[in-house]
Amino acid sequence: MTRLSGSTVTVVGAGFGGLSTACYLADAGADVRVLEKNEQVGGRASRMERDGFRFDMGPSWYMMPDVFERFFGHFDRQPSDYYDLEHLDPHYRMFFKDGDTVDVRPDKDYLRDLFESYEDGAGEAFEEYLATSEKHYETAMENFVYEDRSRLRDWVDLDVVRAAPVGLQLIGSMQSHVEKYFDNPKLQQIMQYTLVFLGGSPKNTPALYNIMSHVDFNLGVYYPDGGIGAVVDGVAELGSELGVTYETGAAVREITRRKHGFLVETDDETYHPEYVVSNADYAHTEQELLPEHERQYDADYWEKRTYAPSAYLIYLGVEGDVEPLAHHTLVLPTDWDPHFEQIFEDPAWPDEPAYYLCVPSKTDDSVAPEGHSNLFLLVPIAPGLHDGDAVREEYREKILADIAENTGVDLRDRIVVEEQFSVSDFGERYNATEGTALGLAHTLRQTSLLRPSNRSSAVDGLYFTGSFTTPGIGVPMCLISGEHTANALIEDHA
Predict the structure, then answer these.
(1) If we measure between CA atoms, which residue out of 61, 105, 65, 69 comes closest to residue 219?
(2) Nearest CA among 56, 462, 46 for reference residue 262
(3) In terms of pTM, does the model score above 0.85?
(4) Residue 122 half-sphere exposure, CB side, CA atoms within 13 Å?
(5) Are 280 and 373 within one domain?
(6) How many C-beta atoms surround the C-beta of residue 398 within 10 A?
């Protein structure tokens, strides 16, 4: 008999954290039902189809392939059983707003020469930085990411003691860490752009996240055929093979502890599982779905958190090609500090934005009709900003003009499909606190055991998964979060 045989679990929310948790629990023998508010599974990794164009609405970078291999490997599968991958070359292209353009390619010799061309000695510094990043990545993943340490007692461990010197060296900011290796601001930006994926800035993200350079330059950037939506389909299909049941269009309105198990209510149904896992926004779950006496944190706690950025997104179907944009393109001001300040310190729509353009039709013909291009643009903005029609229209004109000026690609007279998505949409579609696009930022005070726990301290049998808890933000981290949460439930109740 398996460890949870006969147990019933309801997972609220079908983002990657919820889908992952469901797989692990079903594999342990539980009867698992996933309830999803929206019309499709995937959470923020939703898809949108318009007039022959197919858009990934959220995550678009496939990084850390080792995490996906480990996830599927736990169930004696591999990613290729569900989707194919293409290694991108270039990984991405950067347009600096002084007219400079840089391609980051999967070629170490090329990258060394590239860095050296910007600064004497930077080629050797790049190799040293990358070697350090790889070492830190291996230490962090083995001791602090794959190994769940969400409770203080979890840190009383010989492996932690051995790894502590590395961690203590990296409690400063990423900015101070990168400055030890490179003086050139463009090289500093190349080494730090991934912080946007962690919901932080160079000045508020701990230096331990230098591990992202190993992820970028050593492990590579890939495209799953069909987009990130194909990965969602793969994980959901795996769940179905393990016995997971999915219900979409099932917005949960209440979670209440009963004498034996829980009452979980949607608009149409009432469920009575033994255990509940919430992959919904953590603050929304606590403040809106649970009765007050079953909450761990009060409203003041959530008001004091640092939330990752929201985003202003425009999904575009365009006639013709969009050369010279790459599959992944970043457009950066030479000084990006003011943009980060307008996200974290003085919230406002950025005056001189850094932004991202994704053009999957460069790699995948299926996402756009023949003779057309599929792309979306994303500007990180402060959570909680007002994003009414007037400000959106004004910013739309600003950003499309900026693209034309700094990349040479004028999209304005060729748009045949257009949809926008921003702060209020994140709040409405995903119940995202302050409209954050990602969850809790990875600041020093919101890292590791300082993030909300995947176990409820107020209600026995209630668990949390996803980007608010450990190990944090991003698709790979949410897959791992699902494993941590499932293991916690199994440890407590099997």
Answers:
(1) 65
(2) 462
(3) yes
(4) 21
(5) no
(6) 15
Query: What distance separates the 2 farthest-apart alpha carbons in the chain?
Result: 69
Handedness of CA 4, 285, 43, 137 (dihedral sign): negative
pLDDT tens digits along 345-391: 999 999 999 999 999 999 999 999 999 999 999 999 999 999 999 99
- Claim to verify: residue 270 and residue 295 sit in the same structural domain: yes
Which residues on neighbouring strands pair with residue 376, listed in sequence order?
315, 358
Secondary structure (3-state) at 178: helix
> Does residue 400 share a domain with residue 351?
yes
* Number of domains within the chain: 3
Digit-coded pLDDT (tens) for 238-268: 999 999 999 999 999 999 999 889 999 999 9
| Residues 28/482, Cβ–Cβ less than 8 Å | no
Q: Which of 64, 82, 20 is nearest to 45 (CA)?
A: 20
37 assigned to some structural domain: yes
Domain check: are 124 and 187 in the same one? yes
Owner of token pair 């948790």: 21
> Which domain CATH number covers 372?
3.30.519
CA distance 92 to 59: 15
Pairwise CA distance, residues 471 & 371, whole Å? 42
Q: Which range of residues forms the domain containing residue 148?
A: 107-219
The residue from 170, 191, 219 where one domain ends is: 219
